[in-house]
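User: My collaborator and I are trying to settle a disagreement about how two of our proteins should look. Neither of us wants to argue from intuition anymore, so we agreed to look at predicted structures for both before our next call. Could you fold the first one, then the second, and keep them clearly separated?

Assistant: That sounds like a sensible way to settle it. I'll keep them separate. The first protein:
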Amino acid sequence: MTDQTMIHAPVTEQRPVMPALTRGWQRKCPSCGNGRLLKGYLKVNDTCPVCQQELHHHRADDGPAYLTILIVGHLMAPALLLVFETFRPEPLTLFTIFTVGCAALSLYLLPRLKGAIVGYQWARQLHGFGKPA
């Protein structure tokens, strides 16, 4: 096969994953790290207000919710068992403490995990993030 008959794929720049994940976790634009990624609690901006990076083609879908449930469950279930076996609190006290804890941890993690997933998609150039500008 000669060079004339070979089809070459377009060369795309490599984007570092860890900075994009960190910026997403901080709810900042994965490209510049300065603009806000979210305009509400979970609504992703269409474009970055600072660098104008298009963000509308992200596909986070159910990923952040799944990861939130996974993390909260794996943290709170052993803690529940430990507290119950060690201190033997009243059932209503135990229920109240762990309900508030689960809700608070879920509300904290959900937007951060969504930002991290959008950052990962941007870094790996998935779902339209790899289109040339």
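The second protein, kept apart from the first:
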Amino acid sequence: MKNTFLIFVFLSVITFCKAQVIGTLEQFEECSMRPNRDQEGCPDLENITYVKDTNNRLNQFVGTWKGNYDGKQYEIKLEKKINYKENISDNLSWDRIIGRILVKDSSGNIIYNSMNKPDKDTFFFGYNFQRGVYMMYFVGNYSCLEAGDVFIETRINNPNEMTLVYFQDKDGLLNPAKCPNFSSFTPLLPGQKMTLIKQ
């Protein structure tokens, strides 16, 4: 009985490995820069089920980063997830970065904290590289249209220094009841380049 179970497990692993078609972050980065991508897509990548960080490019971001900007103190923790699926029903899994953020005001009061949230509830996750810069997506106070792309990049001459810039989405549904001070609302992440230091 024990041998039958081991054979079953072994065959299951082999079947799973054969079913998974691996592509690379570089292939998908190249795909995103194709001039005809909007019309034709990337048919050569359609069968891929796992986008792997074969060259460990994501490792440069892993760790805790701290910085200050416009009177706020930022602590950002970035973790690399392997073969990660947002939902179990997804057909495609990725090696990606999941982020957690702690933001304090100039007096040390916590403005935002996602440090103890599960991966799926941090609302700060990576996609892929775009011209060498890693692109993530962040959602803060969605009722105030606080959602958008975050671009992070470590410095070539100093890998312990990272820059971050946030580009807020222009589309979305403003909820005035949940965001009464929208005209004076300031997003958590800066729209100008911020420098963070690895701890």
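Some points you might bring to the call about the second protein. The chain has one domain: 2-198. The first strand starts at residue 22 and ends at 24.
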